[in-house]
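Quick one - inputs below.
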Amino acid sequence: MQTVFDYLFIIALYFAVIGLAFFFSWGASWVFRKLSARLQARRGPPAYQPIADIIKLFGKERFTPALSNKFLYILSPLLALSAILILSFMIPPGTPLWPGPLAFDLIVILYFSVMFSLAFVIAGWASGSTWGKIGASREVVMILSVELPLAIALLIPSLALARGGFSFSLSITDVISAQQGTFIWILPNWFLFRYPLAAIALFLTLLTKSWMRPFGDIPEAEQEIFAGSLTEYGGPLLGIFELARLFRFYVFTALFVDLYLGGGVGFVFPFDLLIFLAKCLVIVILMTIVHVASARYRISHVFKWFLTVCLAFALFSLIRVLVGF
Amino acid sequence: MQIDKVTAPEYVVPLGPFHPALLEGEYFKLKVEGEKVLDVDLKLGYNYRGIMKLAESRSYHQNIYLFERVCGICSAAHTTAYTQTAEMLGGIELPDRARYIRTLIAELERIHSHLLWAGVGMELIGFKTLFMLIWRDREHVLDVLEAISGNRQHYAMNTIGGVRKDIDKDMIPKIEEKLKLLHKATETATKAVLEDGGIRARTKGIGTLDKEIARKICVVGPVARATGMAIDVRKDDPYAAYDEIPFDIITAEGGDILSMAIVRLGELVESVKISQFCLDKLKTVGGPIRAEVKEFPTGEAVGRVEAPRGELMYYLVSNGTNIPERARVRTPSYLNDYALLFMLPGESLADVPITVASVDPCMACTDRMCSVTDHRIQIHKTGTLRDLSKSFR
Amino acid sequence: MVKITAIKEALKALFKPATTKYPHGPPSHVPPGLRGLPQFSDENCIGCGACVVCCSANAISMKDEGDTRTLSIFYPRCVFCGRCEDICPEDGISLTEQFELATTDKKNAEVTIVFKLVRCSQCGDVISTRKHLDKIKERIMTNVDATVKEEVVRDLPKYETLCGECRRKLSYELNTHTQKYYARRWES
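Output:
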């Protein structure tokens, strides 16, 4: 029999996770900016810079362009923020103890991650600018090419649960707890080592979804199309978008760490959280290095890469899971 | 039942006058189907400053510093061309030392301009790291120029009949040290640009300029050399000290962006060599750095130099006074910009910025006359800037 | 997708940033001989106005008011070419290494020097600055031919107080026409 207090406790827990996501994203965003600056022989911003940028935007004038669809123009940043907030508490912070909001997390996560991208398509289309429309069309191509490998790579650990002697489950919590123990020799029993190609596919798709080069920043390539979808945005609405984009540092890295790097499994409560965050930070640093060391491809390259190489990796792993070798 | 071919709607994308990819004001009217560019129209004239008119009211010596400001990047090329033309008018012979110093400055400037181009090109295809690193290495050559002349960009070194500042004996080893660093940096940059798959994917076969078209529209400089034409004013019509300096003309086949990059990166190495040659000569050759200027008798003269962007031509008419009757500047970008109309159609919208940058356009150089069309009555009129500003108020 | 060189270069740059915190800290380096703000020398400048004529950007202006002459460099116009320094006969103007010249008030963006002016005793026209005339006098006294020195010393006060036009008009009246020197030289 659950009381009101139990529900309140769970809600408080969700807010705690959102707070954790926010502060981690802030720190990771700073690490990203500082590290990429240092790799480019610059000095980089101080630690408050990521959040100062957003606060500055909230202090500015709000406006809607004359040619825009006013309703969608205002709706899309809110859509993006709500999607990413839902994502950020759907993904457990590394510990198997996390109750998990639903028993079928992964499907919902997939759904909201598409919704997050779609918010940018809507934003670009609603703003009524040529550049916004080009950005939106590029974003659509990105969704079409990225989501299929992403979906397969997300579901592989959950399908593999049945192979490992667990019952099939779509909950990330179960996936985390299934990665306990060692695989071979001293390698931990992470899905990274069991399905490396799928892990690469997921890493590439998540890299792309978090606006990192070589593919990620094509829809907002500033030298080509200003800011793509967000060209006409400014002030608080852009601030909401930027806030939503800040959370990508938590959401997409946490997803990878939970599914393929075993979250914080094998440690007791406060330590598993720290281990989890450390792993997330490692992924952020890895993403930064890839981002810094690559040129931006064309949008046609994205289609080619993700629907051949990336999809092939994911499908090969899927066949391995289903056939079992 | 016949199904019509589904095509994306055609629409016009205005690239410019102000756009993050364009460093200066210029306007490309792109007719686009989806991401594919169908047709291009180019409009220039956003940077008109009336320099040639202004030159007709200033003395020859004052004009040096005026023409230095035609272009911020190839400022030494402009003054070299101008002083050379004025020297032809006055029949002045350059002293030996001045010739080497002039060549040294011109080549250091070419290094700085090509490194700048490489950095901008990297930035336009989204490779911010190489952009930053190449520009960091470009600081070496700017330091050298600053130490020699006292300014990073506008060197004010050339004057009619010679150069204004001598290079000290004890400064030469320092410059040589920096040249070694530059040589290393250029090699690293060349290696990094040519080995990267991402850069290759973005530049190979993109923005191809056909050799026949290139010949027909008279492109100059690295753009012409990238299509396989071995033209270079430094070899064809040697000025300053180029007639005694051994160097190669770098050419490449293909005419795409990658070959333009190869030509420019190859020229960097050559420029370092030429600079080293000049420094070696400066150690031994002494003498004055400035010849005496007497007067500019009535007449006209044409001078040309190889600016980093191609052939730069100056035309001067003297009426015997200390103020030129007419000064005409023909910049390389004036010819190279036109090539864009043949390079852009058929490319993807994403490749437009790098294609535009590949000819290294310098709009401030190019804009020479302001022509305003009244679209209602279809009359071209030209006038002073003051009148124009009044009529558009 | 080989990009070893780029990654290697990037990692090399990790701990040695090339940029400095310039507006908040000192500039990385100021090379000797930097062409910065032109300054008049209080000692050497004689206020002849040669720099005004030769300035390639018309940044230097000269203003004669009452019995003072003001030379001023409006440095937002200045292009730091250093031609004034080249042309100056007395080392009276030189480029300093000062380059942080931004100011919020246009009136502050000027370097000025004030001289005492000498006017013509007859018509009131400007002759030149006191310092300029003194310099001329000094030069004449050092370079003058010994044979005419006496006469020159006698005539100089007359020259000093007359502008060129009045000197021409009154040359016979005051016996200051130059021909007499030439005549004397031919004789000797």
